[in-house]
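Exam revision sheet. Question 4 asks you to relate a sequence to its structure. Input first:
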Amino acid sequence: MSDDTTVDTRPTKIMYVAEATAHGGRDGYVTSQDGQIELKVAMPRALGGDGNGTNPEQLFAAGYSSCFHNALVLVSRRFGFDLTGSTVAAKVGIGPNGQRGYGLAVALSVSLPVLDADVAAKLVDAAHEVCPYSNATRGNIDVTILLG
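Answer key, structure tokens:
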């Protein structure tokens, strides 16, 4: 039996598929099928590694922040608002989840300097409903959005 309050956010049509391959896990490298990504991956110092490379959390932060910012641009255009000077920064934390595994937490810091606080908050809420990363993480990862 399904919960009536659950919204199905799965795509009805796949419009693009990204492909990436990891070689060596957290101490190796990642590549994309189209050659746009070719990055060394290393365990962060905070997790006992040498930190001489990017890591999955940084890649997730980059993806989420750019995707969320694009969702903001989309909803702002729909309502005719200017996003000049706007930014979205993401912090992705990792730690034990109490279930013999690991979990993530995300904090998005959104700056919409040319908009008043009420309008900015409404646009951020609308972007959070539109953004595929937000839809994928909803109910699975704690996502905090800070508007400043």
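Marking note for examiners. The CA atoms of residues 86 and 113 lie 6 Å apart.
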